[in-house]
Amino acid sequence: MRKVRWLLVASALLALAACDAPADTVAAQAPAAAPTDTPPPLDPAIAAGEIPQRFHGSWDAEGGSCTPASQHWITIAARRITFHDGVGNAAGIGNDGADPIVDLVMEGAAPMTLESIKLQLTAVGEREALLLLPGYDEPKGRPLARFRCSD
After folding, report:
1. pTM of the model
2. Is the pLDDT of residue 88 over 60?
3. CA–CA separation, 85 and 135 (whole Å)
4. Cis omega (within 30 of 0) on the bond before 100?
5. Whole-number pLDDT of residue 137
6. Residue 117 DSSP one-character state
7. Which of 90, 74, 99 minimizes the C-alpha distance to 151?
8. Does the N-terminal or the C-terminal CB of the chain have fewer CB atoms within 10 Å?
9. Which phi-psi region, left, alpha or beta, contains residue 28 (left: φ > 0; alpha: ψ -120 to 50)?
10. Is the pLDDT of residue 30 over 80?
């Protein structure tokens, strides 16, 4: 018990001594910061709390009808994603690099829930595809590629 008290007192005294040290002494003891890469500028839409324009429009899985009746159909607007069975209103939007991460308040067939979905554009063959990560309705844990519908 006596050793524990002594260690606590010694730690407190060291902390106080560091607080009383001149600023240049403390700065001289701090290790030099490693150079970091400058992050890319934040997409203005994400900064404004919106889903970027490049994601807007209707999307459906390969062979889908591109209508709300299609199981994998979605449509994306600035602050809303509409699925065939419900609507997600953006409660917050962040980013992972250039990809937006959208927190959606889901309303529809199930009770209201909060889903966090990363939107990512990729290429499948020569076509642009949209992935929802972690997919809203991924079959067997694999992202489902959706392709832009002709609006």
Report:
1. 0.68
2. yes
3. 15
4. no
5. 54
6. E
7. 74
8. N
9. alpha
10. no
E-assigned strand segments in the chain:
57-61, 74-76, 80-83, 86-96, 99-108, 113-124, 127-133, 146-148
For 72, which DSSP code? Answer: T
Q: With cut-offs at 50, 70 and 90, classify the pLDDT of residue 111.
A: confident
- Structure token digits, residue 25: 């002494």
**Greatest alpha-carbon span in the chain:** 77
Helix/strand/coil for 12: helix
Please name the amino acid found at residue 77: A
Tokens of 66: 């591109």
Share of the chain above pLDDT 70, in %: 67
Q: CA-based Rg of the chain, rounded to a whole angstrom?
A: 25
Domain locations in the chain as residue ranges: 1-32, 44-148
User: And the tokens for 23?
Assistant: 């600023």
**Amino acid of residue 12:** A
Please name the residue that has the structure tokens 């209201």. 112
pLDDT tens readout for residues 53-83: 999 999 999 999 999 999 999 999 999 999 9
Token digits for 9?
A: 């007192």
* H/E run at residue 28: helix 23-29
Place of tokens 């009770």: 111
Contact 42, 95 (CB under 8 A): yes
